[in-house]
Amino acid sequence: MEYLTEMQQRVILALYYSGNEKVTFRKLIELTKSSTSPVKNAIDSLEEKGLVEEIEETESFPKRRYIKLTEKGKKVAEKLKELYTLIESTS
C-alpha cells in the first residue's frame, strides 16, 4: 500500500481547490505555502503515481510549465476532501 505524504496531499488539494484546470509551479508554491524543493519533490512523486501531469506551453515566451490533476488525481482529491470533511465534522 502506498501512502501520500502531507506535502503530496497539499499539492493535490491545492490543485483541486484552485478552480483552474492547470496551475503554474510558482502559483502552486504559493498555494501550498511551501518552498521550491518540497513542492517539486511532491510533484515528481505524484507524477510517477499518475496523479498529476506537467504541461509545457512553448507558444508563449517565456515558456510556461503548468501542473494539473489527472483523472485519477481528481478522484484522489475527492476522496481526500471527503476524508477531511469527515474528520472536521467529528471534532
UniProtKB/TrEMBL annotation:
One Pfam family, short name: HxlR
InterPro entries found in the cross-reference section: HTH_HxlR, HTH_MarR-typ, WH-like_DNA-bd_sf, WH_DNA-bd_sf
Any GO MF annotation of the entry: DNA-binding transcription factor activity
All residue ranges annotated as the HTH marR-type domain in the record: 1-91
Superkingdom to which the source organism belongs: Archaea
PROSITE patterns: HTH_MARR_2 (PS50995)
Protein name from the UniProt record: HTH marR-type domain-containing protein
Natural source organism: Sulfurisphaera tokodaii (strain DSM 16993 / JCM 10545 / NBRC 100140 / 7)
